[in-house]
Amino acid sequence: MSKKSVVSEAQEIQLAIELINLGARLQLLENEVSLSRERLLKLYKELKGVSPPKGMLPFSTDWFLTWQPNIHSSLFLNIHNFLVEHAGASGIQAVMKAYQLYLEQMPPEPGEEPLLSLTRAWTLVRFTSNRMLELKPCKCCQGKFVVDGMDLNRDYRCGLCHMPSRAGKTRKAKEAETAAA
Measured between alpha carbons, how far apart are the two ends of the chain, in Å? Predict the structure, then answer.
């Protein structure tokens, strides 16, 4: 029978707390923290006051390729890659630090959720490590953006240089126009 270290268990609990506070879903926690599902559920309920959301994690690359999510995903992934390449960050710590820096640059409106959740950011890193998605430079601005790893992207133009016709036509934008008029 192996003995568990109290220190390592405390570190796992601290990691779980940080992940929960950043908005991690239970499936992410189970994947990255070695605590039991029951302990994670109890910890989540204690911190958030509610049970964790149910349902499957995102499993399609499509969300990351649409206009606004692509810009947010690209920003996050560029930060993540910089931390991995130049700051020696790795694993879930790199994802957490990159996500915190992303939130500093793209803070959500008061009472709103960030466009890119921690769970989606974590999934994005997994998709890129499996080469389902990758970063490619835009031929106009040279910024690196998330693209489908299986597409031909030689002459890629980003959503900022080649903005889609419906860009910015969200419900919130329409409501703001109506309220201003």
Answer: 71
Domain that holds residue 110: 62-175
Residue 156 lies in a domain: yes
SS3 call for 157:
coil
pLDDT (tens digit, 9 = 90+) per residue, 12-65?
999 999 999 999 999 999 999 999 999 999 999 999 999 998 887 777 899 999
| 76 and 116 housed in the same domain | yes
| Cβ burial 131-167 (10 Å sphere, 16+ → b, else e) | eebbebebeeeebbbbbbeeeebeebebbbeeeeeee
Domain annotation covers residue 116: yes
